[in-house]
Amino acid sequence: MKKFVRNKEFFLTIITLLIPITLQNLISSSLNMVDNLMIGKLGEDAIAAVGLVNQYFFIFMLCLSGINAGAGIFMSQFWGKKDVSNIRKMLGLDAIISILTALVFSFIAFMFPQSIMKVFTKEAVVIDLGTEYLKIIAITFIFTSMTQALSTTLRCIGMARPPMFASLVGVLINAFLNWVFIFGHFGFDAMGVAGAAIATSIARFIEMVYVVIYAYKADDIIAGKLKEIMSFNSEFIKMYFKTSSSVIINELIWSLGITTYSIIYAKIGINAVASMQIATTINNMFMVLSIGLATAASIIIGNKIGANEEDTALEYATKLGILAPVVGAVAGTALWIASPWVLKNFSISHETLNLTLIVLRIMAVFAPLRFFNVLMIVGVFRGGGDTTYSMLIQLGTVWCFAIPAGFIAAVYFKLPLDKVFFIICLEEVVKVFFEAKRLQSKKWIRNVVEEVDCLYNS
């Protein structure tokens, strides 16, 4: 324990990355919170509509997260070796794949918004409101893809603050424009849900511009010539997909699972959808530390493996495995205490409020386990290049346990939302056993930099 506490290098490295990454996640969650608070003034149908649209955007974001995370594995290890040339190549490949993915999602959102909404609900009012919102924000998928590619690269080379400031600028602009467009100020008509979509679109565009300008004006590592950034060949692409395909599939499996949860909740009733949308938004505000800790872990573990310091990587992973549930317990306690106060800001019925409070407290109880699981899957195993095992854990626990159990509980046994959600959360218990065993095995350590070197030297 003394060695754990006194390891200044470990804590300094973690904190240097953790604070800006967590703040960025908190700021991004705040953007969703601002949207929900303001849209909440329009009623539960509006909350449900935007929440269901966000499920579609959520699938896109997790696809993007998989693409970026796969590139981040390489870039973190390249940075451990100070291989700037290959970092630039990986950025170019990451950006192209991200933009192509965004174009597909944007096209579907703009051309078939009503069909997307009908997947989630049969409520005509919710479908109409969601369709209006989705058609407007369709363009933002492209903005977000560029922002995330550059932000991933900056974080992997230890520059986590610029993406944080970009998110802060985006949140402030979004909050102000929400006030202007949703309710009608400065001569604009009150546009309701459409106003929220316009505000979000402008904010994401400005966020992208900020990151692009910073990356190419202030950083000589990323700002290579176009020819250099696009100098990857087919073998480099194959190497990327060999590692990243598991991450992308993992994110798809999880995002589709979360979306399926929304369909399950919709079977219970529209107030269940509204409750889960509000609860998830509030929960994310308290759980941002889990993603921040996991992202920081993936970077520093990748750096250590790339620098051929595998013993140090293992030591850091073990310490983080102890630290994560402790931080999760603190976050869960804070969520439990703050939930009643935060819910007072939403204009919802008394029944929906009480239901949401119960859901939030279930989330609080499972927070320590969730922190550990996110750390292992998103942080340790990915940073170590062990992407396939993470994918298999998600596939097994989400699709073979949580979804069937939740569906049976909601549709066949007609259980209320709180009980269905508790059953789904038991997935976190199952994950722990598989992850702890993998951590101890050391099989998750894989040096992808050496594989790239072999590729070019062969």
Structure described in brief:
With 458 residues, the chain is mostly helical.
Proportion of residues in extended strands: under 5%
Q: Structural class given helices, strands, pairing?
A: mainly alpha
What is the 3D shape? globular
Task: Compute the number of strand runs.
Answer: 0
Q: Mean pLDDT, nearest integer?
A: 84
Major sheet: size, sense and barrel closure?
A: none
Helix share bin: over 70%
Termini separation comes to 46 Å
Number of helices, counting only DSSP H or I runs of 4 residues or more: 18
Would you identify the regions where 5 or more consecutive residues have pLDDT less than 50? Answer: none
Please characterize this protein's 3D structure.
The structure is a single chain. This protein is mainly alpha-helical. 86% of the residues lie in helices and 0% in strands. Helix 2 (8-40) runs antiparallel to helix 12, helix 4 packs antiparallel against helix 7 (140-156) and helix 7 packs parallel to helix 9. The radius of gyration is 22 Å and the shape is globular.
